[in-house]
Amino acid sequence: MLNTLSGRFLILTVIFVMLAEIFIFVPSVARFREDYLLARLERAQIASLAVEATDMIAPELEAELLTNAGVFNVVLRRDDMRQLALSSPIPAEIAATYDMRDPSGPALIRAALGTLWDQSPRIIRVIGTPVQGGGQLIEVTMDQMPLRSAMIEYGLNVLLLSAIISVITAFLLFLAVQTFLVRPIKGVISHMQNYAEAPEDARRIIAPSAGVRELRDAENALQMMQTQLTSALRQKDRLAQLGGAVAKVSHDLRNILTSAQLFTDRIEGSDDPLVIRMAPKLVGSITRAVHLCESTLAFGRADEPSPRLARVELAQIVDEVVESERLAAGDYPLSFAEDIPATMNLRADSEQIYRVLSNLVRNARQAVTATGNPGEICICGEEDDRLWRITVSDTGPGLPPKAKEHLFQPFQGGVRKGGAGLGLVISGDLVRGHGGRLTLLQSDANGTTFEITLPKADFALSPETV
């Protein structure tokens, strides 16, 4: 009970209501004391009227009037004359005097607390203003103990009433919390447990229905999260199925390309000048295709091969990439610029660097040709004591916002219609395998620039967020 939300609300409500009643208790008791003393003054004034009505009054009647008024004697002041209207023996000396004609709030509270604290019998004098113009002043002496007993009784009644109000209020708040908070929260928990049993089932996604705005916001956030998770799980399942299919296709395609590689070995022996010039490129392309199939099979086994590091000439790799893309561009007015130092030798896997540059240049070519306008693709290289840097830039239209947001996410960062969005993902993985990083430096109306950064020492560069 104490560990539940509604139970804690119940206890806190009782405590807070009782605290509020305690703050109200002292002023209310002070007000009760004032009313009590004023009532005694009014009774004493009424008793004095009986004396004025007759010249002589029997001692028995005078004692009865004083008893009914709850005082020992009554003094009236009229026309600046002080008159003893009723009197009886006072059992003790007067201990205190209280003037009720114009008391302040703090004075009433201090007097009330003093009355409750003092348990000894005391005789007090009370001064007030007579009602209905009955004189200038009325003064009585009385025992304080009946006043204290009445104040204690009144205080206990107030505390009892406060406790009853607290319990009723807490119970009503308990029902309200159960209805408007606990029950909807339990409903959300039930939805979460139901969804956790089969997160791929879109029918189990929560439908926001809470009337409380905060709970409604929580349900909306949960719905969004569940929708994204369900979509991601479905995509993961499709990727797993696609990976299996690609692995099968790559296995068969590798066998076909191996046979083609055997035929190209014989073509290399031809005396035709054109064949002599084109055969090495054909052999290189088929070799890369075989390596790609092998890498795809390794990726399907979640075992991406590590790069085979060796000293490679970057200019030679760039020449092969550019030559291949020139053939793909055909007669389109697209120029290629290379600014690679002849002495720039990388410590890298030549096949993987070729794949990275081929993906970047192919994307740039497709972006430029999609505009229908002439363009240029530039590949630059530079180095310092720590790093090799390679930039690939184009004069295309730039990447759309959605592509920037999901640039290195598979099946989401594609720009070309029909593209799978895997080129940059694969390129980023290959560059990270070298300890480097692939970064988007610029993408706007003036074009797009990617940078490949590779470390010269044996350490990995920290990734950067685009």
Automatic annotation (TrEMBL):
Q: Which GO terms describe its cellular component?
A: membrane
Pfam families given for it? HATPase_c (PF02518)
Q: Which reaction does it catalyse?
A: ATP + protein L-histidine = ADP + protein N-phospho-L-histidine
State the UniProt keywords alphabetically.
Kinase, Membrane, Phosphoprotein, Transferase, Transmembrane, Transmembrane helix
> Known EC number(s)?
2.7.13.3
- Membrane-spanning parts: 6-30, 154-177
Which branch of life, at top level? Bacteria
Per the annotation, which location comes first and is thus the protein's main one? membrane
GO molecular function list: phosphorelay sensor kinase activity
Provide the Histidine kinase domain boundaries: 248-458
Q: What compartments host this protein?
A: Membrane
Q: What is this protein called?
A: histidine kinase
Q: Which organism is it from?
A: Loktanella salsilacus
